[in-house]
Specification:
The structure is a homodimer. By secondary structure, the first copy, chain A, is of the alpha+beta class. The first copy, chain A, is about 35% helix and about 35% strand. Chain A has helices spanning about 10-25, 35-45, 95-110, 125-135, 150-155; strands at about 1-5, 50-55, 60-70, 75-85, 115-120, 135, 140-145. A 5-stranded mixed sheet of chain A has the order 1-2-3-4-5, with helices on both faces. The first copy, chain A, starts with a strand and ends with a helix. At the A-B interface, strand 1, helix 1, strand 3, strand 4 and helix 3 of A face strand 1, helix 1, strand 3, strand 4 and helix 3 of B.
Amino acid sequence: MFLIRPATIDDVPLLRCMIRELAEFEGELESCVIEEADLRRDGFGENLQFRALVAECDQQPAGYALYFDCYSTWVGAEIFLEDLYVRPQFRSRGIGMGLLAEVARIALRENRRALRWEVLDWNKNAIELYEALGAVFCDQWRPVLLYGEPLRQLAQKTL
Amino acid sequence: MFLIRPATIDDVPLLRCMIRELAEFEGELESCVIEEADLRRDGFGENLQFRALVAECDQQPAGYALYFDCYSTWVGAEIFLEDLYVRPQFRSRGIGMGLLAEVARIALRENRRALRWEVLDWNKNAIELYEALGAVFCDQWRPVLLYGEPLRQLAQKTL
């Protein structure tokens, strides 16, 4: 049995720990530089940048979902699911599905039209779960990221 | 010459018009069901879901950028650029670059670490521009969307 609850500020060390476990699973641990102070300020301060849920199994932390509000100019308000993670020893018990379902309930309660997220193309287990749910894979769309020196250079361009 | 300014509530009819032009360019006009009332409430009401910039060229509306705050659990606060559009008759004058540069300046001013967006894989002109800027194409990541009946069914799943 497991339960799912909103994360609180006391969960910040746990959240950062699981965020780093997920980054390691994705092979990108060196890209993960977030600190507890960032999560505390951005998730539980005055200017909220995200919300999170924690899953517990036998009173042990088993996984999390982290999401924020996003917006489609076709349909309006949506939710972007940034992270969905279940610790290896707690997998295959429906915890990932439970976290997703809770995010779906929050979306509908807030009149948000869709959940958006991204999945790594080699994560077969996750892809199978999302396919079974009836999710749409938007493979015509390529995710793009601009950061660091190229972002600073772009900001310096004048009209 | 052109100028770029924040969108105001008086721009809502123009924004919806250009949003629909972009949806048509993307071959998805039938998916675009947003109404002016939605944009007015979500972009200029009490619970802001997005921000937008308008480009003007010779005092005519030439394009727009629409974006919202997003969050990376690796680096913290970022900006998600939902739409970037320049009307056909105003292209090749640097207006798209001007809109992007203004969003980049806003990101840096707010200590946001990156711009995120998505590009259609057949939009060669856009892809060339983004490559020239030093953007990173995250092609291992597949965008996923869940909406409509599958979203409602997911929300009904219990633990």
